[in-house]
Design a protein that fits this description.
Belongs to the ferredoxin thioredoxin reductase alpha subunit family. This protein has one helix at about 85-90, and strands spanning about 15, 20-25, 35, 40-45, 50, 55, 60-65, 70-75, 80. It is mainly beta. The model is unreliable at about 1-5 (pLDDT under 50).
């Protein structure tokens, strides 16, 4: 297990994408490669089980970046966001 995979991310935690990750489903760049490195979002789901049975998901962290955009990521692609209070406070 990689050291970054030991990171304990929790629901609602603010995180930043620390590695280059290309996605093709970004609402403003649909169908085109878009690098989300550096984007900040918050964890809205952690996949541990499906229909009551434990699973080992390849991309267990669901991170929401905007109302229309979320992505499933690995722990090795994320880091805790230190300046998150100002970004997500109401």
């Amino acid at each position: 297990m990689i050291a970054s995979e030991k990171e304990n991310f929790t629901l609602g935690m603010a995180v930043r994408v620390k590695t280059s990750v290309l996605v093709y489903h970004h609402p403003e760049h649909r169908g085109q490669a878009f690098d989300i490195q550096g984007l900040v979002g918050h964890i809205t789901g952690i996949l541990h089980e499906w229909q009551g049975r434990p699973i080992s998901a390849n991309y267990p962290y669901c991170v929401k970046f905007s109302p229309k955009f979320s992505a499933h990521l690995q722990a090795s692609e994320l880091e805790p966001e230190t300046d998150a209070y100002s970004r997500f406070s109401n």
